[in-house]
Write a structure and sequence with these properties.
By secondary structure, the protein is α+β, with helices and mostly antiparallel strands. 19% of the residues lie in helices and 44% in strands.
């Protein structure tokens, strides 16, 4: 009996020491699981804004240094259980005044995108196969300015790194949609707030095509962080585009009626 009791105590002690290791093994994440978890956590932090509007300037710069500036307005409506709806309207210069873009982002299905061209007085639908094209001659593609739903990518955690003095998670995101212009993206999220501070885009051949850097973040409604500036640089062409946001206003009471095709032609 004494031998059996001693043996049971040894076994119990061994199990106690082994338990933390077993628990850690059970809880250990794969790189794919960790990447998905971080993407979901980042998405949770921007949910619940309801709607917002903002004015912004778009500065296009050529490799030679020539610049063109456009003034825009944007309004966005959060949609439960789906992607956001957005309406973007160009106010200046005169040659693009009244041009408007309506986007219905979706979690899984192709986004619905319509472009109103006032010179032609007609609405043009942007096919899913064309969403990798440049938005109004900028370095932002149509797919870049649509809401980035978690379900549109598969994820893998790559490493920890720093950007502009900030500790960051670097996550690889591979588009599920074959019509995407990218083979993958490396998304840099600061550890403190999980804000996407930098994104490296790789084309279908796997070459490093573009880099987006977001900066000058401000906090709204004591919860939501939005950048005042986004710089997209095309490493192959040498061109770049800067978006500078101003006058954010949240929770305006927008309804889905303000985001339909009729709103495109009446955007002015």
């Amino acid at each position: 009996m004494r031998l059996e009791l001693a043996h049971s105590r040894i076994v119990a002690a061994a199990l106690m020491f082994a338990a933390p290791a077993i628990a850690c093994t059970a809880l250990a994440e794969t790189a794919e699981e960790k990447g998905l978890r971080i993407a979901r956590d980042a998405d949770d932090r921007i949910n619940g804004f309801q709607d917002y509007t903002s004015t912004l300037s778009m500065t296009l710069k050529t490799k030679a240094g020539q610049q063109a500036v456009r003034e825009l307005r944007v309004k966005v409506l959060e949609v439960q259980n789906d992607g956001d709806k957005s309406l973007t309207i160009f106010d200046q210069p005169r040659d693009v005044e009244g041009t408007a873009l309506l986007t219905f982002a979706h979690k899984v299905a192709d986004d619905d995108i319509w472009l109103f061209l006032p010179a032609l007085k007609r609405v043009k639908r942007i096919a899913g196969s064309n969403k990798s094209g440049p938005f109004m001659g900028s370095e932002f593609a149509f797919e870049d300015i649509s809401s980035q739903e978690v379900e549109k990518y598969t994820y893998k955690y790559l490493r920890e790194d720093t950007h502009d003095g900030q500790a960051c998670h670097v996550v690889n995101a591979v588009p599920v949609d074959r019509n995407s212009g990218y083979s993958r993206q490396e998304v840099w999220l600061d550890k403190a707030e999980l804000r996407a501070v930098k994104v490296d885009y790789f084309n279908r051949r796997g070459d490093h095509l573009k880099t987006m850097v977001a900066s000058d973040f401000k906090k709204y409604l004591d919860r939501f962080w939005y950048p005042d500036r986004m710089l997209m640089t095309n490493h192959q062409s040498g061109r770049s585009t800067v978006l500078e946001y101003k006058n954010y206003r949240f929770r305006n009471g927008f309804t889905e009626r303000e985001f339909d095709q009729a709103s495109l032609e009446g955007a002015r």
